[in-house]
Every structure is written in structure tokens, then in C-alpha cells.
Amino acid sequence: HANQVQIGSAASVQASFTTNWTGTPVTNESDTFMLFDTTGSSPTSQLFGTDSTRGSNTYAASISTSTNLYPYPATLPSDNYDAYAGGCVGDDPGRTNDPGFTLTGGQVNPETIKEPALIVKVYGNSYDDNNSGWTYSGTHWTASTIATNAYDGTEHTNSGAVANEYAQISFTGTGVQWIATYGPSYGKAGVYIDGTLKTTIDTYSASTTYQKQAYSITGLTNGPHTLKILVTHTKNGSSSGYTVSVDAVNVVGGTPNVVSPAPETIAPTVSVTDNNTGCGSNVDYPPTQAPSINPAQGALQFPGEIYGSLIVCADNGTYKNTATVTNTNFSSPGTPVTINLYNGATGRTAGTC
Asked: pTM score, two decimals?
């Protein structure tokens, strides 16, 4: 909500903000705040702080006015300003029941503006080969960032020159799929789940095939597991080599082939656009966290004033998706918003916000 500021003599204003999610305080909650003249006098509104951009985050715990503000003449019906987080003039609520406080020159009156949090949960289910969760053991792994036909354009391959080198990743769910490249020079790999050998996969193919599902398992206990792909230095008699590919894994859960999204492990980029016509499509880029304060609870806090709707966009550098939050759904202590970036998610498109 907005707080009303009454200025008794020349004074500066410092706005501080507090956000708590599941009892945990969040730092750096806003990039700008507004003082809106309730009398309609010019200037009607004043903006303080610096708008964040995709490349420059300017969120802070407190923001101060740059110059002294002055009271309005007593002949005016009111000398109140509405003070609120955010940067949109059109969002001023103009409420009459806001708690008020008075500032006088040289006097320090701390006042905290409390705002509800927008909790953005960004989910994906595909762990690319360059995800930080992978462990590659051995000296014969090669990372390619120009694998045009591979998932996300990257791939790890092992020449298979020696046995027992491996790639391993942990996941949470009821199943997993290993995605790999097959080809004329590819060999065999052992697949281990939670340390137990499940099968040996022959990845030879007469012609190169990309993003092929090499292995899939479902029906695991819903919880943490490990997948290990072991280089065996064995091959099909028709293969000219022993290469093993790691392109990606998909986490699955529930029933076979049903996606079980996992929180993104790398901080996504999130933009929040206020579609109130008085805001000029104001866009903010709040600070994101991954993993979040509580990985199961959310990844972003945005406490700005809202009286239109917010268009929330999240991307992981390759794919993006959006969600809309109306003002009726923006409530205290916070509104969880889900953005899905996993394979097959409705609305997911290539690109960034």
C-alpha cells in the first residue's frame, strides 16, 4: 500500500522497504519509489532511485530523495504526498486511509513501507550437459559449444579411449531420461541409477542421430537420485570407435513420460512489466536467486505498487515464458507465480525476456 507523507518544512525523504517470505527477510527490495502529490499540484509526481535494466540491477534496501522537498501552502486542501515502491505514476491508489507520518526539516523519522512480495518460481526439467550439476570424471571428455544439432547447442563427448570414465548428475523425481548423440563411431555405455548398474546401451548408428533418448527409467521413489553414465571402452562390431555422448537429461515423474519440473539451478533472468496504461509499459528487472531463499518456495521478490496487471517473464538464456498477475491476485504476504521452461511447456518459446 502507499503511505502518506506530510512535510512540515523543507526535508528530504528516505524510503526503506521490507519484504519477508516464509519468515525470511529479503534484502534489496526496490529500485525506485514515488512521491505523488495528492493535491494535483505540479509536479504531480516525483520519481527517486534508478530504474533497473537487464544488464544493471539497481535494487536497494532504501532510497533517498536527491533534493529537499517543501510543504504546500496552507491554502491548498492538503499537503500530503503518497509514497510507494515502484516507478509508475498511474499506480498511485490515492487512498485516504493510509497511515501517515510527518517530516520536518532536520528531523529523522524512519518510516518503513511494507509491500507484498511477488514470488516467481521458475521450473525446468532438462539439464543440459554444461549444467553445473554434472560431474565429468576422466581426462577424455570434450565439451563442445558449437554442437548445432544438440540440445541447447552444446554436448560433452568422451572418446572412449579408456574404460571407467563417467558423467554423473543428481536429480529429484520418479524417473530420468538420458539424451545422447548416436553415430558410426559411437560405443557402449553402462547406465547406473543410485550406484546400481541398470543396463548397457549401445550408441552405434550407421548415420548420426542427435538428441536421441538413449535410456529412460520411471517408477523410482519420488526423491533424490543419481544417474551415472559409464564409458566401457567396448563397441558394436560395426562401429569405428568408442565415443559416448552426454547431451542432456530430462527428469520425469508421476506416470511415464509426464514431466516433473525441477527448480532452475541457475538464476534465471526475470522481467516484470506493469501493463497499467499510465505506466508506459514500465519494465523492471528484480534481483533473482537460484536456488531461492527456500528452493521449494520461490526465486524472486518484487514489492512494487500494482494497480494494473503485471506481465512476468523469465528466461534461462535459451527459452522464455510468461505469466500474468492481476492486482486482485497480488496480496500479502506474497503471490507465487509459476514460470515453466521445461520441454513441452505451454507458452515456452525460444529467446530471452
From this structure: 0.60
